[in-house]
Protein backbone atom coordinates (compact mmCIF):
# COMPACT_ATOMS: atom_id res chain seq x y z
CA UNK A 1 0.00 0.00 0.00
CA UNK A 2 1.24 3.43 -0.87
CA UNK A 3 1.32 6.23 1.68
CA UNK A 4 -0.97 8.31 -0.53
CA UNK A 5 -3.73 5.76 0.04
CA UNK A 6 -3.90 6.87 3.66
CA UNK A 7 -5.05 10.29 2.54
CA UNK A 8 -7.16 9.29 -0.44
CA UNK A 9 -9.05 6.35 0.98
CA UNK A 10 -12.06 6.55 3.21
CA UNK A 11 -11.78 5.79 6.92
CA UNK A 12 -14.09 2.78 6.63
CA UNK A 13 -12.14 1.45 3.66
CA UNK A 14 -8.93 1.56 5.63
CA UNK A 15 -10.51 -0.21 8.54
CA UNK A 16 -11.94 -2.93 6.28
CA UNK A 17 -8.50 -3.57 4.83
CA UNK A 18 -7.16 -3.95 8.35
CA UNK A 19 -4.74 -1.09 7.96
CA UNK A 20 -5.85 1.12 10.81
CA UNK A 21 -5.53 -1.33 13.64
CA UNK A 22 -3.17 -4.04 12.39
CA UNK A 23 -0.04 -2.45 13.83
CA UNK A 24 -1.81 -1.47 17.01
CA UNK A 25 -3.13 -5.01 17.35
CA UNK A 26 0.40 -6.36 17.06
CA UNK A 27 1.59 -3.97 19.75
CA UNK A 28 -1.22 -5.01 22.07
CA UNK A 29 -0.49 -8.68 21.44
CA UNK A 30 3.19 -8.10 22.16
CA UNK A 31 2.30 -6.38 25.41
CA UNK A 32 -0.12 -9.10 26.41
CA UNK A 33 2.31 -11.86 25.58
CA UNK A 34 5.01 -10.40 27.80
CA UNK A 35 2.94 -10.06 30.93
CA UNK A 36 0.95 -13.23 31.37
CA UNK A 37 0.25 -13.50 35.08
CA UNK A 38 -0.91 -16.92 36.21
CA UNK A 39 -3.62 -17.49 38.78
CA UNK A 40 -2.74 -19.83 41.62
CA UNK A 41 -4.48 -23.05 40.79
CA UNK A 42 -2.34 -25.94 41.90
CA UNK A 43 -4.37 -29.09 42.36
CA UNK A 44 -1.83 -31.83 42.96
CA UNK A 45 1.82 -32.77 42.55
CA UNK A 46 2.16 -30.78 39.30
CA UNK A 47 1.78 -27.68 41.46
CA UNK A 48 5.17 -28.38 42.98
CA UNK A 49 6.82 -28.26 39.57
CA UNK A 50 4.79 -25.14 38.83
CA UNK A 51 6.33 -23.53 41.93
CA UNK A 52 9.74 -24.77 40.83
CA UNK A 53 9.37 -23.00 37.52
CA UNK A 54 9.28 -19.67 39.34
CA UNK A 55 12.28 -20.29 41.56
CA UNK A 56 15.76 -18.89 41.06
CA UNK A 57 16.96 -21.70 38.83
CA UNK A 58 14.19 -21.66 36.24
CA UNK A 59 12.85 -18.16 36.86
CA UNK A 60 9.70 -17.85 34.81
CA UNK A 61 9.87 -14.11 35.50
CA UNK A 62 12.13 -13.95 32.44
CA UNK A 63 8.98 -14.72 30.40
CA UNK A 64 7.02 -12.04 32.25
CA UNK A 65 4.80 -14.43 34.18
CA UNK A 66 6.34 -14.45 37.60
CA UNK A 67 3.61 -13.31 39.98
CA UNK A 68 1.13 -16.00 40.88
CA UNK A 69 -1.99 -14.01 41.57
CA UNK A 70 -4.15 -15.22 44.42
CA UNK A 71 -7.13 -13.38 42.94
CA UNK A 72 -8.42 -14.51 39.55
CA UNK A 73 -9.44 -10.94 38.79
CA UNK A 74 -5.79 -9.97 38.41
CA UNK A 75 -4.68 -12.98 36.39
CA UNK A 76 -4.38 -13.70 32.67
CA UNK A 77 -3.62 -17.40 32.50
CA UNK A 78 -4.82 -20.31 34.54
CA UNK A 79 -2.31 -23.12 34.93
CA UNK A 80 -4.36 -26.19 35.79
CA UNK A 81 -1.68 -28.16 37.58
CA UNK A 82 -2.88 -31.55 38.68
CA UNK A 83 -5.82 -33.91 38.47
CA UNK A 84 -9.20 -32.21 38.52
CA UNK A 85 -11.81 -34.12 40.45
CA UNK A 86 -15.41 -33.82 39.41
CA UNK A 87 -16.25 -32.07 42.67
CA UNK A 88 -13.60 -29.45 41.97
CA UNK A 89 -14.71 -28.85 38.37
CA UNK A 90 -17.47 -26.29 39.12
CA UNK A 91 -15.07 -24.43 41.40
CA UNK A 92 -12.48 -24.24 38.65
CA UNK A 93 -15.06 -23.07 36.14
CA UNK A 94 -16.06 -20.34 38.58
CA UNK A 95 -12.47 -19.18 39.07
CA UNK A 96 -12.03 -19.19 35.29
CA UNK A 97 -15.12 -17.07 34.79
CA UNK A 98 -13.89 -14.55 37.35
CA UNK A 99 -10.76 -13.92 35.30
CA UNK A 100 -10.85 -10.85 33.05
CA UNK A 101 -10.71 -11.22 29.27
CA UNK A 102 -8.50 -12.13 27.49
CA UNK A 103 -7.77 -15.28 29.45
CA UNK A 104 -5.83 -18.39 28.67
CA UNK A 105 -5.59 -21.87 30.14
CA UNK A 106 -2.55 -24.12 30.29
CA UNK A 107 -3.33 -27.73 31.07
CA UNK A 108 -0.27 -29.01 32.86
CA UNK A 109 0.51 -32.69 33.18
CA UNK A 110 -1.11 -35.94 32.19
CA UNK A 111 -3.91 -35.87 34.76
CA UNK A 112 -5.26 -32.46 33.85
CA UNK A 113 -4.89 -33.05 30.12
CA UNK A 114 -6.36 -36.50 29.82
CA UNK A 115 -6.93 -38.04 33.22
CA UNK A 116 -3.59 -39.83 32.94
CA UNK A 117 -3.57 -43.10 34.80
CA UNK A 118 -6.65 -42.11 36.82
CA UNK A 119 -9.22 -43.40 34.38
CA UNK A 120 -12.00 -43.57 36.94
CA UNK A 121 -15.27 -42.01 38.02
CA UNK A 122 -13.76 -39.30 40.21
CA UNK A 123 -11.44 -37.49 37.80
CA UNK A 124 -12.35 -35.23 34.89
CA UNK A 125 -10.73 -36.92 31.89
CA UNK A 126 -9.74 -33.71 30.12
CA UNK A 127 -10.07 -30.23 31.56
CA UNK A 128 -10.91 -29.09 28.04
CA UNK A 129 -14.44 -30.29 28.81
CA UNK A 130 -14.63 -27.71 31.63
CA UNK A 131 -12.53 -24.77 30.40
CA UNK A 132 -11.11 -24.09 26.91
CA UNK A 133 -7.46 -25.15 26.98
CA UNK A 134 -4.85 -23.25 24.96
CA UNK A 135 -1.72 -25.30 25.62
CA UNK A 136 -1.35 -28.89 26.78
CA UNK A 137 1.84 -29.94 28.55
CA UNK A 138 2.54 -33.69 28.71
CA UNK A 139 4.59 -35.15 31.52
CA UNK A 140 3.94 -36.59 34.93
CA UNK A 141 4.75 -34.04 36.18
CA UNK A 142 6.41 -31.98 33.44
CA UNK A 143 9.83 -30.56 34.18
CA UNK A 144 9.83 -26.90 35.18
CA UNK A 145 11.55 -26.22 31.87
CA UNK A 146 8.68 -27.96 30.08
CA UNK A 147 6.26 -25.53 31.71
CA UNK A 148 8.50 -22.61 30.79
CA UNK A 149 8.46 -23.96 27.23
CA UNK A 150 4.66 -24.11 27.36
CA UNK A 151 4.50 -20.49 28.50
CA UNK A 152 6.76 -19.58 25.58
CA UNK A 153 4.39 -21.45 23.25
CA UNK A 154 1.48 -19.50 24.72
CA UNK A 155 3.35 -16.26 24.09
CA UNK A 156 3.81 -17.30 20.47
CA UNK A 157 0.14 -18.10 20.25
CA UNK A 158 -0.82 -14.71 21.68
CA UNK A 159 1.46 -13.00 19.15
CA UNK A 160 -0.16 -15.00 16.35
CA UNK A 161 2.93 -16.97 15.38
CA UNK A 162 1.41 -20.43 15.68
CA UNK A 163 -0.26 -22.44 12.96
CA UNK A 164 -1.91 -25.83 12.84
CA UNK A 165 -0.88 -28.59 10.45
CA UNK A 166 -2.95 -27.08 7.63
CA UNK A 167 -1.21 -23.72 7.98
CA UNK A 168 -4.23 -22.02 9.54
CA UNK A 169 -3.37 -19.53 12.24
CA UNK A 170 -4.51 -20.60 15.68
CA UNK A 171 -6.88 -18.23 17.47
CA UNK A 172 -5.30 -15.93 20.02
CA UNK A 173 -7.63 -17.15 22.75
CA UNK A 174 -9.09 -20.63 22.53
CA UNK A 175 -12.07 -19.51 24.62
CA UNK A 176 -13.19 -17.13 21.87
CA UNK A 177 -13.75 -20.04 19.51
CA UNK A 178 -16.17 -21.75 21.88
CA UNK A 179 -19.71 -20.68 22.51
CA UNK B 1 26.04 -8.23 70.19
CA UNK B 2 22.99 -7.44 68.13
CA UNK B 3 25.06 -5.30 65.76
CA UNK B 4 27.40 -8.21 65.24
CA UNK B 5 24.41 -10.44 64.50
CA UNK B 6 23.10 -8.03 61.88
CA UNK B 7 26.55 -7.74 60.31
CA UNK B 8 26.79 -11.51 60.15
CA UNK B 9 23.42 -11.79 58.48
CA UNK B 10 24.15 -9.04 55.99
CA UNK B 11 27.48 -10.69 55.30
CA UNK B 12 25.67 -13.75 54.01
CA UNK B 13 23.53 -11.55 51.77
CA UNK B 14 26.51 -9.58 50.51
CA UNK B 15 28.55 -12.68 49.79
CA UNK B 16 25.78 -13.82 47.42
CA UNK B 17 26.32 -10.68 45.37
CA UNK B 18 29.61 -12.10 44.18
CA UNK B 19 28.42 -15.63 43.47
CA UNK B 20 27.53 -16.91 40.03
CA UNK B 21 23.77 -16.68 39.30
CA UNK B 22 22.01 -20.02 39.49
CA UNK B 23 19.42 -19.25 36.80
CA UNK B 24 19.60 -21.42 33.70
CA UNK B 25 18.74 -19.07 30.83
CA UNK B 26 16.65 -21.87 29.37
CA UNK B 27 15.79 -21.12 25.75
CA UNK B 28 19.25 -19.74 25.04
CA UNK B 29 21.15 -21.95 27.44
CA UNK B 30 20.62 -25.68 27.05
CA UNK B 31 19.16 -27.68 29.91
CA UNK B 32 21.35 -30.33 31.44
CA UNK B 33 19.20 -33.37 32.28
CA UNK B 34 20.23 -36.39 34.29
CA UNK B 35 21.12 -39.51 32.32
CA UNK B 36 18.14 -41.43 33.69
CA UNK B 37 15.59 -38.70 33.02
CA UNK B 38 12.54 -40.08 31.21
CA UNK B 39 11.15 -37.98 28.40
CA UNK B 40 9.73 -38.73 24.97
CA UNK B 41 9.92 -42.32 23.76
CA UNK B 42 12.20 -43.58 21.02
CA UNK B 43 11.63 -46.73 18.97
CA UNK B 44 15.03 -48.20 18.28
CA UNK B 45 16.49 -50.12 15.36
CA UNK B 46 19.27 -52.68 15.33
CA UNK B 47 22.31 -50.55 14.57
CA UNK B 48 23.97 -53.03 12.20
CA UNK B 49 21.00 -54.31 10.16
CA UNK B 50 18.69 -51.31 10.47
CA UNK B 51 15.75 -53.58 11.34
CA UNK B 52 13.25 -52.41 13.92
CA UNK B 53 13.70 -53.92 17.35
CA UNK B 54 9.97 -53.89 18.06
CA UNK B 55 8.34 -57.26 17.40
CA UNK B 56 4.79 -56.15 18.11
CA UNK B 57 4.25 -58.31 21.21
CA UNK B 58 2.18 -55.64 23.04
CA UNK B 59 3.86 -56.31 26.36
CA UNK B 60 4.43 -52.57 26.73
CA UNK B 61 0.71 -51.95 26.24
CA UNK B 62 -0.06 -54.58 28.88
CA UNK B 63 2.41 -53.05 31.34
CA UNK B 64 1.24 -49.49 30.79
CA UNK B 65 -0.62 -48.28 33.90
CA UNK B 66 -2.32 -45.48 31.97
CA UNK B 67 -3.28 -47.60 28.92
CA UNK B 68 -1.57 -45.06 26.71
CA UNK B 69 -0.04 -47.50 24.21
CA UNK B 70 -1.77 -49.15 21.27
CA UNK B 71 0.07 -51.77 19.24
CA UNK B 72 -1.13 -53.64 16.19
CA UNK B 73 1.14 -56.40 14.99
CA UNK B 74 1.53 -57.81 11.47
CA UNK B 75 3.46 -60.74 10.01
CA UNK B 76 6.88 -59.95 8.65
CA UNK B 77 7.55 -60.47 4.98
CA UNK B 78 10.43 -63.03 5.06
CA UNK B 79 12.09 -61.52 1.99
CA UNK B 80 11.90 -57.94 3.16
CA UNK B 81 11.53 -57.95 6.95
CA UNK B 82 10.67 -54.82 8.91
CA UNK B 83 11.73 -56.19 12.26
CA UNK B 84 14.12 -58.84 13.45
CA UNK B 85 11.37 -61.13 14.75
CA UNK B 86 8.47 -63.00 13.17
CA UNK B 87 6.14 -60.08 13.51
CA UNK B 88 6.45 -56.33 13.60
CA UNK B 89 4.33 -53.46 14.86
CA UNK B 90 2.33 -52.15 11.92
CA UNK B 91 0.74 -49.58 14.18
CA UNK B 92 2.47 -48.30 17.27
CA UNK B 93 0.80 -45.36 18.93
CA UNK B 94 1.36 -43.63 22.25
CA UNK B 95 -0.94 -40.96 23.60
CA UNK B 96 1.61 -38.59 25.07
CA UNK B 97 -1.02 -36.91 27.23
CA UNK B 98 -2.07 -40.21 28.80
CA UNK B 99 1.51 -41.33 29.24
CA UNK B 100 2.92 -40.77 32.72
CA UNK B 101 6.53 -41.44 31.67
CA UNK B 102 7.00 -44.16 34.27
CA UNK B 103 9.20 -46.32 32.07
CA UNK B 104 7.26 -49.55 32.63
CA UNK B 105 7.04 -50.05 28.85
CA UNK B 106 10.81 -49.92 28.69
CA UNK B 107 11.10 -52.47 31.49
CA UNK B 108 8.55 -54.79 29.93
CA UNK B 109 10.05 -54.72 26.46
CA UNK B 110 11.84 -58.02 25.73
CA UNK B 111 13.90 -56.59 22.87
CA UNK B 112 14.72 -53.15 24.27
CA UNK B 113 12.85 -51.55 21.40
CA UNK B 114 11.18 -48.73 23.28
CA UNK B 115 13.36 -46.45 25.36
CA UNK B 116 12.41 -43.20 27.01
CA UNK B 117 14.68 -40.44 25.80
CA UNK B 118 15.46 -37.03 27.14
CA UNK B 119 13.23 -34.72 25.11
CA UNK B 120 10.80 -32.83 27.31
CA UNK B 121 9.54 -30.00 25.09
CA UNK B 122 6.28 -31.68 24.13
CA UNK B 123 3.76 -28.88 24.66
CA UNK B 124 1.23 -28.49 21.85
CA UNK B 125 -2.12 -26.83 21.26
CA UNK B 126 -4.60 -29.50 20.24
CA UNK B 127 -5.42 -32.78 21.95
CA UNK B 128 -5.46 -34.76 18.69
CA UNK B 129 -1.85 -33.82 17.98
CA UNK B 130 -0.58 -35.79 20.93
CA UNK B 131 -1.01 -39.29 19.53
CA UNK B 132 2.50 -40.16 18.42
CA UNK B 133 2.83 -42.87 15.80
CA UNK B 134 5.81 -44.80 14.57
CA UNK B 135 6.82 -41.94 12.28
CA UNK B 136 7.15 -39.67 15.28
CA UNK B 137 9.18 -41.98 17.46
CA UNK B 138 11.51 -44.08 15.29
CA UNK B 139 15.23 -43.44 15.57
CA UNK B 140 16.33 -40.43 13.60
CA UNK B 141 13.26 -38.34 14.33
CA UNK B 142 14.27 -35.34 16.37
CA UNK B 143 11.93 -33.22 18.42
CA UNK B 144 8.23 -33.31 19.22
CA UNK B 145 5.51 -33.11 16.60
CA UNK B 146 5.07 -29.39 17.18
CA UNK B 147 8.80 -28.67 17.09
CA UNK B 148 9.11 -30.44 13.74
CA UNK B 149 6.07 -28.64 12.35
CA UNK B 150 7.44 -25.30 13.47
CA UNK B 151 10.90 -26.04 12.09
CA UNK B 152 9.41 -27.13 8.77
CA UNK B 153 7.46 -23.89 8.56
CA UNK B 154 10.51 -21.79 9.29
CA UNK B 155 12.69 -23.95 7.03
CA UNK B 156 15.32 -24.75 9.60
CA UNK B 157 16.47 -27.73 11.63
CA UNK B 158 14.78 -28.78 14.85
CA UNK B 159 16.55 -27.24 17.80
CA UNK B 160 16.19 -28.91 21.16
CA UNK B 161 16.66 -27.09 24.44
CA UNK B 162 18.68 -30.00 25.65
CA UNK B 163 22.38 -30.17 26.41
CA UNK B 164 24.17 -33.11 24.76
CA UNK B 165 23.41 -36.06 26.97
CA UNK B 166 24.00 -39.74 26.64
CA UNK B 167 22.24 -42.84 27.84
CA UNK B 168 23.62 -46.26 26.86
CA UNK B 169 20.14 -47.70 26.21
CA UNK B 170 19.47 -45.04 23.59
CA UNK B 171 21.26 -46.84 20.79
CA UNK B 172 21.68 -44.63 17.75
CA UNK B 173 19.90 -41.63 19.25
CA UNK B 174 21.91 -38.48 18.92
CA UNK B 175 20.94 -35.37 20.85
Quick check: average pLDDT of chain A?
A: 87
CATH architecture classification of the domain at 35-158 in chain A: 3-Layer(aba) Sandwich
Judged by helices, strands and strand pairing, the structural class of chain A is alpha/beta
Tell me how many strands of chain A there are. 4
CATH fold assignment of the domain at 35-158 in chain A: Rossmann fold
Tell me the span between the first and last alpha carbons of chain B. 57 Å
- Largest sheet descriptor of chain B: 3 strands, antiparallel
Give me the number of helical elements of chain B: 5
The major β-sheet of chain A equals: 4 strands, parallel
Give the amount of beta strand of chain B, in percent: 5-15%
Radius of gyration of chain B: 22 Å
CATH architecture of chain B: 2-Layer Sandwich
Overall strand count of chain B: 5
Poorly predicted runs of 5 or more residues of chain B: none
Helix content of chain B: 10-25%
Mean pLDDT over the residues of chain B: 89
Give the chain pair forming the largest contact, with residue counts. Answer: A-B, 38 and 34 residues
* Low-pLDDT segments of chain A: none
Amino acid sequence: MAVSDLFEKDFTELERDGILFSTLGKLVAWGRSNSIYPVTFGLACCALEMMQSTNARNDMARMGSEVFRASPRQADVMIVAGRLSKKMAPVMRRVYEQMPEPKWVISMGACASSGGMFNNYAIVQNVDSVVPVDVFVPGCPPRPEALVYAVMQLQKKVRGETFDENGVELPMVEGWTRS
Amino acid sequence: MSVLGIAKGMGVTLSHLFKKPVTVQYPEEKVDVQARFRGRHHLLRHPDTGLEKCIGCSLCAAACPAYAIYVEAAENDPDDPTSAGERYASIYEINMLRCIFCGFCEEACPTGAIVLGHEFELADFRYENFVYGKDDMLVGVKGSKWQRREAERAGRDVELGLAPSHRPELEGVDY
